Amino acid sequence: xxxxxxxxxxxxxxxxxxxxCNLRCTYCMPPEGLDWLPNxxxxxxxxxxxxxxxxxxxxxxxxxxxxxxxxxxxxxxVDIVRRTALLRPRPQISITSNxxxxxxxxxxxxEAGLDRVNVSLDTLDRDHFKRxxxxxxxxxxxxxxxxxxEAGLRPVKVNAVxxxxxxxxxxxxxxxxxxxxxxxxxxxEQMPLDAQHGWDRASMVTADxxxxxxxxxxxxxxxxxxxxxxxxxxxxxVDGGPARVGVIGSVTRPFCGACDRVRLTADGQVRNCxxxxxxxxxxxxxxxxxxxxxxxxxxxxxxRGKRAGHGIDDPSxxxxxxxxSAIGG
Length: 329
Ligand code: SAM
Description:
This protein is an alpha/beta fold. The protein is built from 10 helices and 14 strands. β10 (about 235-240) and β11 form a beta hairpin.
């Protein structure tokens, strides 16, 4: 098992399929994009499936989430999902996507074995969407959400990041929209993971503020029907339920003590935390001929060194040099 020195066990693997994205969300990357990883450095589909197989069969991974960048721009995504679904014990398989491409791909992904999808959406206004993402793709995202729901990838979860003075007023309309459509909305506090290193605490809308904004229009009660476990979102029943809303207070309400996540970047590096400053190279070892047992050993060692917390509040905190899009959000 992937046990760290604090006794936490990683069972939830986040795999970045590519660092490339077809949106340019302001809190993630600059409008001109980034220096994408050269193709030769990206894991091939076979290499991804080999590492995921080691994770599932040897290291106790029970949940695999494909992300990026934008995972749907990776051509082999359906094939990768299909091969993941053949693993035993069969892991839960999900994708975090900006939704573009889901209208076309949701049925094939569901048929390949995808269980669920998280779609990012920070505004319901088409012009605002264009300003926030530098692309005019709002309609594609809405169509993608609907297609995912219709394909049975439920519950469709919607991720929203609020920024002070920018899309704060969207909190209530976003929740109303998700309630109407049957999607589960989760707000995520903005984290210092943007490529531009422009994050500042003052512009982050905190979990407390999000709950206050929502409480003006909805009756929220903590959903204690189920143990939160390692789930990052604190969940609330909306107007008595059964609909719920989640708030992920990554910065102000960190959940590092219960973290069960480990990450594999698109270029084959294991990261034991979003905010880790060190990575462990599985791609190099794999291409140099390492056996599955040797790769598993490297992976175990990488997780053993996981720090107690992300340390954003430490005076010595340093933002990781790789942005969210390269790590895999
Ligand atoms: N392209 C996919 C998407 O849009 O969901 C997957 C990758 S994206 C990096 C994953 C999630 O990270 C998205 O929900 C996005 O809103 C969130 N995200 C990106 N940068 C963030 C930041 N600085 N703070 C908080 N969340 C962030």
